[in-house]
Amino acid sequence: MSRVLVAMSGGVDSSVAAALLIADGHEVVGATMKLWGGDSDSGCCSVADVEDARRVAQQLGIAHHVFNFGSDFDAHVVEPYVAAHAEGRTPNPCVECNRHLKFDRFLRRATQLGFDAVATGHHARVVRHPAGGRYRLRRGVDQAKDQSYVLHMLDQAALARTLLPVGALTKAEVRTRAADLGLRTAAKPDSQDVCFITSTGGRHAFLGSRIPLRPGLVIDDDSGEVMGSVPAVELVTVGQRRGLGDAGDARRRYVVDVDLAAATVTVGPRPPMMERLAVGGLTWVDEPVAAGASVLVQCSAHGDAVPAVFDVDGESDGEVDGAGAGVRFEQPHRVVAPGQSVVLYDGDDVLGGGVALASASALADGRL
Amino acid sequence: MTAYLDHAATTPLRPEALDAMLPFLIEHYGNPSGAHAVSRRAKQAIEEARDVVAEGLGCRPSEVVFTSGGTEADNLAVFGADAATVACTDVEHHAVLHSVQARGGRVVPYAEIGSVEADLVSVMLANNETGVVHDLPDVRGLLHTDAVAAFPWLDVAALAQRAHFISISAHKFGGPKGVGALVARRPLTPIIHGGGQEADRRSGTHNVAGIVGLAAAMRITVEQRAANVERVTRLRDRLADGLLAAVPGAAETGERNNKTAGNCHVRFPGIEAEALLVLLDEAGVCASAGSACASGAMEPSHVLAAMGISRDEALAAVRFSLGATTTDADVDLALKVVPDAVARLRDST
User: Fold this and answer.
1) To probe the interface with B, which of A112, A115, A161, A195 has the most B CB atoms within 10 Å?
2) N or C: which end of chain A has fewer CB within 10 A?
């Protein structure tokens, strides 16, 4: 038995995580992070969600605290998200929230308060290798709900102090468990998308109130003709097909290039492809992967993991110090927007991950 | 044991208040606005309570308007007074601050409040977070004072004599929650409309038991105030001196000779009050920090910011607030627990 601080968002997964840990005999306390003070559809931080977490804690008979990490969230998640867009990158704020808030700020707070471990309601598994005691981060049992991608930054030190109890259950089992316990969150819908962006205003309203958004011209890659315009060039991502205003919808146009300086969006008939993706800011779950190793690579939260070779500076040998690292895909891969998380797997186990860098080797317009 | 050191948040109900209230929750259930005997009994209780409150606040009974609490009293003064322009200090309770802001009024430092041009000026008598006591300024127009935090400790009737409007809340001095009063020495336009109760200044069926409880608690508070201030000052000084001696770098907020007796506000640089409160809670010491927003999260204090205290230091501040039921044992427990908890947090940072 250990003392565990459960990050309770007010959703069903973290509610059941707390219940499972209690059933396992741990001494459990709940805590809800207040991260975002602005508008929200009800991501993680609305008063109603905190109230749900508090009521579930009461139902489970455990103490519950609220931690105001709003300024950390602004500094480590919201401001970088805005800055990245201003520079033409497409960041994943949930990854940064996990990196800086849940598994850093929250974990440090838990340690300060004398807890042995933290737990969350993420669908992923922490597995301790029988020999040697190293920790592995594995996909959740429910592949459709797997969240290992957004947890790829967890290292041995973090994993040693992290419990992910619902990763062993399917989502349906989680809901059944919650219903059996009579938890008020049993039928609560899953949270969607980025918690600080409302469905009504979208990214445009959010970013538009923080940085100047400039309209851009949409240019045909073949003819060089101007085909239309987009309201905000900062919001266009390489590879995207929808939301190109009057230029994109009719003829299945894909964005093959975005030039922020010139405020132009180049579109072509096929998705832009790449053979190699440069990856920065790599972190490893355990030992760094050797250059030349075969891995599976996942480049979006719900994307497929595809075979690739990890390399450095395009070479498949040499020491890996992070600089010049990348993955060479077995089959040409759709261009990954700079800023997206790139996660390396060995089967179902996360090896590590980083962020996609702007790639010089992108094969424009799918021409191989 | 639990050391309850959060009397500025709320106080336990005085037994005398409970005894006074019970008949009005049971046999005397009448609506005081009615005409028959059952109603008359309730009506009589309200008017007797009004007399007690008028005496406690140094006003005429007809100037007492019963409300649902301090927040409503503050709102009624800011929105109901005959004033085209309003202003308040930057250390007011949110009930005043947000009301003045909602009216488009001015918010200025305390030092400037005497010279601000406004038809209604609001200045709290004692601050709810720091306990700092304010002199009420000479103003040309109307003066409102939020005396909610002051009433348990200060002779509000004397100190707020010049105020045209005075807010108080029962649960801060041993009365029940959900009832308060506004002294209105000038006309008010109601903000709650309906049956015209309270001489057309505040509609809604009276909270009879609450009002009776408020009056009972007020009577005892006034009777015992001097003795209570003396006793609690000694306890507070022992707590504050003990914390300052035991915790390196600890700093007290406000001049002790110009604070309410029950307030012990201490900053512990290098730690986060939010974490400290969890450890104190586990050890049975109930205190608070800043002001809690609707979610229960602690927000950085606007009061400390207005005093020029840095954000980091404001986030390291804890308010221990003592009251009529505080004992030496409470102080002992706090002195035993707090220095260790601060040291533990500092060690782990």
Assistant:
1) A112
2) C
Q: Closest chain B residue to A44 measured between Cα atoms?
A: B295
The reply to whether residue A66 touches residue B297, judged by beta carbons under 8 angstroms, is yes
Maximum Cα interatomic distance, chain B, rounded to a whole number of Å: 69
d(CA B188, CA B79): 9
CATH number of A3-180: 3.40.50.620
Task: Tell me if the domain spanning A273-366 has CATH number 2.40.30.10.
Answer: yes
Of A46, A50, A70, the CB nearest to B296: A50
**Long-range contact set of residues A188-194: C-beta below 8 Å, sequence gap at least 24:** A188/A10, A188/A11, A188/A12, A188/A52, A190/A11, A190/A12, A191/A9, A191/A11, A191/A42, A191/A43, A191/A44, A192/A41, A193/A43, A194/A43, A194/A93, A194/A94
pLDDT, tens digit (0-9, with 9 covering 90-100), for A205-234: 999 999 999 999 999 888 888 988 899 999
Q: Specify the pTM.
A: 0.89
* Interface predicted TM-score (ipTM): 0.86
- Chain B residue numbers with beta carbons less than 8 Å from the beta carbon of A50 are 295-297
Mutation to test the A interface, candidates B282, B286, B291, B295, most A Cβ within 10 Å: B295
What's at B45, amino acid-wise?
A
Orientation angle between helical segments B328-348 and B273-282, nearest 10 degrees: 130
Q: Where are the domains of chain A?
A: 3-180, 213-268, 273-366
Is B264 noted as a catalytic residue in this protein? no
Q: A50 — contact with chain B (CB < 8 Å)?
A: yes
Please say whether the structural domain B15-222 has been given the CATH code 3.40.640.10. yes
For chain B, say whether A210 makes contact (Cβ under 8 Å): no
Q: Which of A4, A76, A68, A58 is nearest to B275 (CA)?
A: A68
Six-digit token string for B211: 């009002």
What tens digit of pLDDT does each residue of B247-305 get? 999 999 999 999 999 999 999 999 999 999 999 999 999 999 976 666 677 788 999 99
Q: How many CB atoms lie within 10 A of CB B192?
A: 16
* A55 to chain B, closest Cα gap in Å: 12
Q: Is A229 on the interface with B (CB under 8 A)?
A: no
Instruction: Delimit the CATH 3.40.640.10 region(s) of chain B.
Output: 15-222
CATH class of A213-268: mainly beta
CATH fold of B3-8+226-348, please?
Aspartate Aminotransferase, domain 1 (3.90.1150)
